Amino acid sequence: MAERRAFAQKISRTVAAEVRKQIAGQYGGSPQLFKNLNAGTLTSNTVPLTEAVEPVDFEEYLITHPPIVESGPLRDLIEFPPDDIEVIYTPRECRTVVQAIPEEGDTDPHVRDCVRSYTEDWAIVNRKYHKLGTGFNPNSLDKQKERQKGLPKQVFEADELPDSSGYQDDQDDLKRRSMSIDDTPRGSWACSIFDLKNSLPDSLLPHLLDRAPNEEIDRHNEDQRKTNRHRELFALHPALDEEDPIERHCVPDVPKEHFGQRLLVKCLSLKFEIEIEPIFASLALYDVKEKKKISENFFFDLNSEQTKAMLRPHIQTAAISTLARSAIFSITYPSQDVFLVIKLEKVLQQGDIGECAEPYMVFKESDANKNKEKLEKLRSQSEQFCQRLGRYRMPFAWTAIHLMNIVNSAGSLERDTELEMSLSERKGSWSERRNSSIMGRRSLERTTSGDESCSLTGFRPATLTITNFFKQEGDRLSDEDLYKFLADMRRPSSVLRRLRPITAQLKLDISPAPENPHYCLTPDLLQVKPYPDSRVRPTRDILEFPARDVYVPNTTYRNLLYVNPQSLNFANRQGSARNITVKVQFMNGEDPNNAMQVIFGKSSCADFYKEAYTSVVYHNRSPDFHDEIKIKLPASLSDHHHILFTFYHVSCQQKQNTLLETPVGYTWIPMLQNGRLRTGHFCLPVSLEKPPQSYSVLSPDVPLPGMKWVDNHRGVFNVEVVAVSTIHTQDQYLDKFFALVHALDEHMFPVRIGDMRIMENNLETELKSSIAALNSSQLEPVVRFLHLLLDKLVLLVVRPPVIAGQIVNLGQSSFEVMAAIVNRLHKYLDTSQDMHGRNSLLSSYIHYVFRLPSTDPNSPSPDVKSTSTGPGGLGGSVHYATMARSAVRPASLNLNRSRSLSNSNPDISGTPTSPDDEVRAIIGSKGLDRSNSWVHTMGCKSAPWGSSPGSAPETMQAMERCGNRMSSHTESASFLQTLTGRLPTKKLFHEELALQWVVSSGSVREGALQQAWFFFELMVKSIIHHLYFAERLESPRKNRFPERFMDDITALVSTIAGDIVSRFQKDLELVERLNTSLAFFLNDLLSVMDRGFVFTLIKAYWKQVSTKVYALQNPTLESLRLDFLRIVCSHEHYVTLNLPCSLLTPPASPSPSVSSATSQSSGFSTHVQDQKIANMFELSVPFREQHFMAGLVLSELSVILDPDNEGMFGLHKKVVSVVHNLLSSHDSDPRYADSEVKARVAMLYLPLIGIVMETLPQLHDFTESLNQWGRSGGVQGTTVCSNGDDAEAEGNNMINQTVAMAIAGTTTTSPMSRPSSFLLNSQANRQHGSFSAESSRSLLICLLWVLKNADELVLQKWFTDLSVSQLNRLLDLLYLCVSCFEYKAHVVFTMQGKKAFERMNSLTFKKSKDMKAKLEEAILGSIGARQEMVRRSRGQLERSPSGSAFGSQENLRWRKDMTHWRQNSERLDKTRAELEHEALIDGNLATEANLIILDTLEIIVQTVSVTESKESILGGVLKVLLHSMACNQSALYLQHCFATQRALVSKFPELLFEEETEQCADLCLRLLRSCSSSISTIRAHASASLYLLMRQNFEIGNNFARVKMQVTMSLSSLVGTSQNFNEEFLRRSLKTILTYAEEDLELRETTFPDQVQDLVFNLHMILSDTVKMKEHQEDPEMLIDLMYRYCTKLMNVQENQF
User: Fold this and answer.
1) Which residues of 1658-1688 are buried (b: 16+ CB within 10 A; e: fewer)?
2) For residue 849, which of 1018, 1074, 619, 663 has the smallest C-alpha distance?
3) What number is the average pLDDT over the span 205-219?
4) How far apart are CA 1448 and CA 1459, in angstroms?
5) Which of 47, 72, 856, 1224 can bridge 139 by disulfide, Cβ–Cβ 3.0-4.6 Å?
6) Distance CA 233, CA 241 (A)
């Protein structure tokens, strides 16, 4: 007792640094309490916390420690589940009913590869339990609501606040009735007794007065406490507000066909003033700014059946696909410049466009009867033209709709809108009228700026009626003219306005396209799912020609060609050629019969035709064309495929002997040139005669002998050919690369590429240069063919080709170009990256597409040489050498490994065929084999991992070994052939990748570093595929990989860690990416490799970072390491990796550990401390070795929170959130739901208790912030009751008692004040920056989680070993926890509800109250104004250490818990339901937290009850208990708390009545306060406790004077200072105490019942008087009278008691 007091006094006067020294001396010294950043001061055998220890050999440990349990949840903790990883082949979702594949089969290898690439299943690696890692923690903000369902509502007195007005009046009536001063004689004892006798008692607690052994009471209390507890603590704690946790790796999107924003256009009707002939319409989108047509044409036909019949001779039966009247357009880059252009055509007739359009402008529908004869004449003319010229068309009219106007107007209207579009007379802009009423007109020119608000997804459907068309001008048909018109249309003074329009009515519906429209056909005429009925009129998907490049890989087969004839110049051609049409045919030979039926029909016709005709401009020798001819390209093209153009003169008049069409010229385009598809703009010469034999392989530019050409062989015909193909790359570099790879496949030499013939002997150089040249290719085609390209590069790495009998190793070239491509994607497509900088296209490739060549489900063993190309193979062929990686190593190495080769490959004979001397000669010629010492055979146990693979010399060795392997291929291959007689198996991709990466240098290495994630993830998927198909996922991990691969990985990790350390100041962005990539890589390796080996890699990284961190004291680097740690620890089997079931064995060497040295001075253990227990609670070397990852996490926590480590101040929040995140994830993990399992998990975090104890002086002082919650009281947190609203009620007319005493000059703490054990934390002592409230709260919830779930026996043993001062420190910590998790009254829910709003608002006006609190502080002298100022300024300065990047991280956000207005405004925004939910959660959290504290106190009591120095500890326990009673607590908690308090008093009565007398006073106050509670269960328990307190006091000395005095004093101060105090409730409790006294048989014969009765009556009198004093506050005379009487009574009571 004395010792503790001295200890406390000492602390309160010293600065924090001394405190720490002193504590370090007194604590039984767990290493973190004794830590020092310099390892030098420690004994040789300890490893400082700043360094990583040597991890346990995980696999070895599992073998040598077989599990004790056979099965069950504990058994599952020991090893990863057998189904942890699986490779799944998922059929890719096909959008169409039938898969798009070429009809004529796939003869061409490139086509075959493309089609395979678009149809094969996805190969997905599934980590089955991955979602249980911390990255997917269900205690995050979005998912927490789920976990909080079904919580009971906790009852808090603070929430039960009655409505002050109504309730108060009833109370006043009651008081007046029962004891008005006028009714009864003053101070009438009789009246008081009468009142009391008539009260109703609360229910009595059963068996309260029975005598039972203490153990039984404890057991009963514990059972009660443990029932119906909430299992998951973190589900009640608000999640940390992190954006996306760094360890979350989201699954990339499935690669799928690209669509922009989709727009559905339905064509409803087209009606002219006169109906005399069929009219054909087409729709297309144009972008004026880009001057580009951005969709193919949609042809539709709205003619009546009767009109269509005019064309019967020319039209076969119409295919249903050509009857579509609705179309879906896709717009990737919507802008204000997009127009929907509608063009109309009619059947060719005599006369120019103007003449033909005249009737449509002149006649009106209303005059139909008047003009009947004229119309009949026109109709019969039309019929004649349809009969004769029905195959030809002529341009007629056009109009355009500014798309964004529709979308914006429709968006601003309420219902489906009807917009009428015309050229308004008044102003040239296009007005839009809704149902002919003027609506908010947006003229075009106003909406033209930029691309903002160009979304087509959410507008309301609109119906448009277009009333004006412009007639086509024969000389202005080109696209150039159209763009001018469209640009002009947006100007107010439009030229078009002056034109005479053709009036018509075209009705269109425009709406956002539905997600899965029914009856839809793709641009290739395939049916899209769902397609319930083939007879229904379809909707056409219209192909987009995006305005700018779109970077999306191909996923479906499509092979279309668009031919756009543009203009023809026959001005210099002799002879009659006026009405010109061009017949377009796609030929696969020169015979006329070779025309292919591949040209798409337009509307109301067949699906495909053999020819198409352009529309005719009447009497024009140099016409422009606006036709688009769409062709379905055959998959494989030959040299004979070409487009043939035949020019005809059409005679419109029917004369004798004149042909309908006369050929006037020919020209053509060969489809292939040097094996590549020809596309683009052509200006072709036109021949006057039919082309000669075998013309098709030549270009018409070649002057063929004896041919006559128009205009002297000049180019006279302009045409554009555009391909939309997922077969033809249209990029020369890609074409060359694919062609060479296929030449290798087919083994066809010489191969023609471009104008070169490549012989086999120069194939190697060509191949290498074509791989390098891939960098020059355009990015768009590279992305489109990305999957195929990467597959081919992988294939070249894995199966080096044999060229001219030599193996050509392409690993390096492929690796270099891969790095370059990946970097290009990263650089130019930076919008499609996730938070880790991973490009989504590449991560999709790895996740879904990448597989090892020929590891498809059909051929289970990847080692089989694949001669066929199965669905999963990457198209390998016999001509690939399948050669082992060892072939690249020097021969000496191969010899060394001959034994191991035979182990892994049965084909290779075990013994070298060559005699010893030959071997010696070879070794001699190579020089000594350096890697000898590192080589062991694969089959045996792998080499023990060296002391530290990260150390520099070993890294050098690893590098040299790799260098060793790069000797010439031929030599080693031929040597191998002599050795074994045949080539060994192929390489493994991950091994080759690791090797190439390790030996790379310069820009290649830099490129790989920039995108390290890509190569790491490829490597991991390759490893898993290899293990899966070789069926080695079951095999022991130590034998899975050859040692050389492990060496490469070691070297790789080591050099990358070196890069991180050396470059973080120069290139932070790269280093952050590199750091997370490395962490994810190691996390992945933990699932497949030897785990002990991966631990050594982590250690190597740790070592490199540590050295630098402490040299530089740089928080940035430390922050990177925390990210790394967090990612590695997010592994779904993190708990298993920490060997939670291993019991720590004391270190083998008798190292004088700190704890054993000081254990003799421990307060309790007489025996030498149990080293095992100590090791479990300290970051001892055994702990950190055995629980390697948990050890790293806790060491980081300990080091960063170390007050001496000031540079790391900004990382507090970050490191705490690492721990918080882990624990909250364990908490909700279904695998650890069982309590026994949870105890094992908690065991990994036992040292956390010591670490938090150590940080106690720096934690945020929650006891101080209590007065922020409407409490009276200053720094000491003195308060009167647990009513959250007291201060408000107290108003300004009452003075805080403490303050009153201070004014009066007395310094004794009033019996009311809250006990403050928090001396350690008083502000004056804080020299180091303290933690933010948020970090402190997180840390404390973690501590409570460990205390809740840890094994009680283990805790008890450890408590036994702690010194007195340590235990007291622990109690101080629990004291702080009580304040931290105190329930904040949610007064919003008063039963009446009307006061709710005012109450909340009152929080806002607390400023004056705060000033009052400040004044009180000053009066109490706890903190002077100057000190306050110093404290504030220091608070700001200390938070940004050296202005580092992380300096003020914690303080940037306003402290939520400290700002009233913020708290308030936040509350006001929430709905009532949200607030109720919040109160429910807070209430449950407060209850659970306090129950955990209570459990811990019980364990401490049990531990110390047998020791000599128990008094001081028990005093501390009592203090925490009392403190918890003083806070807002739920009824549930209080009943357990009172039970514990009763047990404590019954076990140690002398504690209260002899030693802790202050505490006795405090206890009486708390009990009385609870006796006046409005909740009956609280009153029942408090009355029972108070009665037993008197009884125990009496039993000690036949008198309970002490309790009498304390209770009386407490009552007067309680009633005097508490505003909304209700004496009716207290009266019931007094009556309950009387009832107990009457029923107490055991003490019936003593004076005890009488004494109790006296006391109760006295208390009742004082109660009545005090209440009256409050009533008569306004009447000074009456008040003085009462006061006098009150004092006399008090004196009587006290005289009686003494």
Assistant:
1) bbbbbbbbbbbbbbbeeeeeebebbeebbee
2) 1018
3) 91
4) 18
5) 1224
6) 17
